[in-house]
Design goal:
Layout (H helix, E strand, L loop, with lengths): L1 E6 L4 E10 L2 E11 L6 H19 L3 E5 L7 H20 L3 E5 L1 H9 L6 H11 L9 H16 L7 E2 L6
Parallel strand pairs: 1-4, 4-5
Antiparallel strand pairs: 1-2, 2-3, 5-6
């Protein structure tokens, strides 16, 4: 299966595409979608949407694994991340991807085996699991690859918490 992992944001969106077959991983592509802080938020959202469309069209994933949103103390940041997350999910759904959400705890558990693992432990294991020469940068990219690995380890069609909006069209 081909999985697109996304670490949502509005300044930096980390993404990583992997193939998972017979308990083996193959890295297809990873990187970051960035927007300029001085740009209007609406233009930033359009840029995120357009850039993810390009990634999806180029890599043809079947699944999107995206981090669940959690609120921090800065409400404006949380709202902007939620808006970016919305356009990311819309792009995936418009391309027929099945969307799955994972908490940071679930990702750490799936990658490291311990839900309270440190960020650098997750990054080092992603490097090893995917056979990369170095830890992907920025951190959002490594997080996105960890989300994709989490989905590979967690996916069960009968039991997963799938958001399948294709039937609503």
């Amino acid at each position: 299966m081909r999985i697109l992992g996304i670490d949502p944001g509005y300044a930096i969106v980390g993404y990583g595409v992997i193939d998972y077959k017979d308990n083996k991983f193959k890295t297809v592509e990873y990187g970051a979608i960035t927007t300029d802080a001085g740009d209007d938020m609406n233009l930033r959202l359009k840029s995120i949407y357009d850039d993810l469309n390009t990634v999806i069209e180029r890599t043809a994933p079947e699944f999107l694994a995206i981090e669940e949103l959690f609120f921090n103390s800065n409400q404006k940041t949380a709202i902007n991340v939620a808006q970016a997350r919305g356009v990311l999910i819309l792009s995936a759904i418009n391309h027929g991807l099945r969307v799955f959400e994972y908490t940071p705890l679930q990702v750490k558990q799936a990658v490291v085996g311990y839900g309270r693992a440190e960020k650098n432990q997750v990054q080092q294991l992603i490097k090893i699991m995917l056979g990369l020469e170095k830890v992907p940068k920025p951190d959002d990219t490594a997080d996105a690859l960890a989300l994709a690995v989490c989905h590979a380890h967690s996916y069960n069609p009968a039991l997963s918490r799938m958001i399948d909006l294709k039937s609503i069209k």
